[in-house]
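Anyone have tokens for Crp/Fnr family transcriptional regulator? Sequence:
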Amino acid sequence: MAALTSSEHFALGRLEDRERSLRRGGTLVRENDRAGEMFVLRKGIMMTSVLLDDGSRQILRFMFPGDMLAVSNLVYREAPETITALTDCIVSPFERSALARLMNEHPRLSALILVYNQIERAALTDRLAALGRTSAKARVAAVLLEMRNRLRMTDASLGESFVLGLTQEEIGDATGLTAVHVNRMLRQLEDEKLIAREGGRISFTDERALSRAANYVDRYAGLDLSWLPDAV
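Reply: yep, here.
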């Protein structure tokens, strides 16, 4: 991503003047509630989801430190998705007016927010295609790769081994599978020597083959940001 100037860092920092803590399982925003604040995720991992007519849950995205949450509140009167803490989290709430001021004063930051939203759109397209057209093994493998890659963006020391931090039910809600089916796919990935598991920790033993099995594309790689406006 583009390096930020000191004034851009300061402008983003103004969005983080307040803090709010949530414990794992806590709901930050509930689907269909009146849209209000937006948030910067400071610490922890969160997820967005929707409830289906049969009462089941579909997890849409996993969110990591630095991500903006509830940006859809800019354009909707009611929240289109629920945002829940997957770990103990800290968020910074801010109003629409604060984001409007940032965009007016720092057009390059406005462009970068557009970039991040397009990355999310492409990743959601990948997940939609996976739900409709790929195997259960590919879907589970893609979640493992996505989690490791996003965690590594905030911890550069992270290698092939990491703490997943998701239950099998949560992986199932993200992939359209039952927890039993997820467990079977994790065992299959182990049997094929693509991953190893120990005490909640996942290790990639053949990442290249795992990526092929998942049909995985890292949407944070290969960006063309040559068009970004100059910092002011």
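The first strand starts at residue 20 and ends at 22.
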